[in-house]
Amino acid sequence: MSGKGGKGALEQPDPLHPRRAAGLAALRAVTTQGALIERLTRTLAEALTTDNVVSAVAGSLVPAFRADGLVIFAVEEGRLYLVGSSGYSRGFLDQISGTPYTEETPVGEALRTGVPQFFGSTEEMVARYPMVADQPKAGHMDSRIFLPLVASGRAIGVTILSFVGTYRLGGEERTLLTALSSLIAQALERARLHDATAARARELQRALLPHLLPSVPAVTAAAHYLPAGRGAEVGGDWYDLIPLSAERVALVIGDVMGHGIPEAATMGRLRTAVRTLSDLDLPPDDILDRVNDIVGDLGEDGFATCLYGVYDSVTGDFTFSSAGHPPPVAVFPDGTVTYLASYTAPPLGIADPPFETETATLPDGGFLVLYTDGFVQAGDGDLESGMARLALALATAVGNAETPPVAELRDVIAARLLPAHSDTRDDAALLIARTNRLAPSDVASWPLPDDPKAAGEAREHVRDQLAAWHLGEDVVMTTELLVSELVSNVVRHARGPVRLRLLRSRSLTCEVSDGSLTTPHIRRTGPTDEDGRGLQLVSALAQRWGARYTSHGKSIWTEQRLSA
């Protein structure tokens, strides 16, 4: 078949074919290079961290140039510090990270001149730089390319591409790598600035959050915090556990709206304010009322949610107030899960006090779970479905035959509700506390007459009760002195009804209550003053002492540390 247009005609030699083939090859090379530059530019633009930069470079350069290894070093004070790698063993990287370099090495030459160094074999590199012969060998790598990373006129690092066996690059490939090194340098400098900012932010976050939750008899607690996975990786979520008087403890969780260092700083201010107000033993609604004023002073754009509650280990009551915060969860020993709040005020900063106060009675060995919205919205972003998942996870974990320890329960719940990776849209905080009731045998209470003989009766009650508790004579003598001063002060300066209460735990708490709202304070006394030294004696004898308002008046309390 040889007619015109047949197969034979198509197979005739074409004198223009070699030139056309070369043109097509050049066109394909240009197109490939453009695609590589576009892809690397796009991925580097999206890279926030140095790890992102390494992944972007490894995902583009290694397959494009058929490299077997990639390593990126930052340079500081004449030393190489590993940023990231691909295709190298951990042992080799550990040997060279932190090592010095000189100008008589490929790295030094590339950084000094700003010109990439290309070596088709190890022999070629050693012939030019003999001192590198003594450096650690990277497996079977033989050919190497050293790309200096120069940003803002300053050498900040070097990228090394390695190949197994001999590898030669053409002029166009060398020009392309030189251009790409500039893109890598700019992205790396930007990422290192981001990492430094994020590191400072994390340090700030760690400084503002509790390093360790205090160990108190009333509860056994554990917390979890996960910052948002983007940006400065720091936010305004916080939690706290604050020991109070009379074997009570405050549990706090809050969320400053937004992310970043300013929000973290605001969080620190609010946490400090809450702790300071807690020292005054104010009720939850009063504390939120005062913190609301603080948030209001931050400006129109500043607001936060907060839940503040007090657990009383004598009664088992958890009394709390909430400002725009998701409701707390009570988990009973049988696995029953209940959301406690029936009312939630607007967030702090826009709320209109007074705040509502609610009380729930919890059993011994139950759990209180406080959380931020980011914790339950980490899945699909829906608050209600997230709260349902939390309730199911708690019921499943606690309803088993053996109730897990608090730290284990925290880990289980966090694993079920938070994504496996840290790329969350919002900060997430979780505070779980197992409630421990004080045994009835460790609580003793008596009414006292509102007259001078009350101090004598109080001393008798103290002697009898401390003897029944098998406490030492030194504790008895100190407690008698403390109770005598407290009761005498009430009889002289306050009004009835008067009641004495003793609580035995790790500390011995003596509490004298009356119907007056006047709080005592230590007075400065002169050498000739006949009174005014009672509270000075109380302060000297007690480990801690203070006063708090109650629904019927006030209570003055002291604490003495008991030996094991």
TrEMBL record:
Coiled coil, from the record: none
Occurrences of domain PPM-type phosphatase (ranges): 219-435
Source organism superkingdom: Bacteria
Nucleus in keyword set: no
Protein name: SpoIIE family protein phosphatase
CDD domains named among the record's database cross-references: HATPase_RsbW-like
SMART domains: GAF, PP2C_SIG
GAF domain location: 49-198
PANTHER family: STAGE II SPORULATION PROTEIN E, STAGE II SPORULATION PROTEIN E-RELATED
Presence of the UniProt keyword Disulfide bond in the record: no
Alphabetic keyword roster: Hydrolase
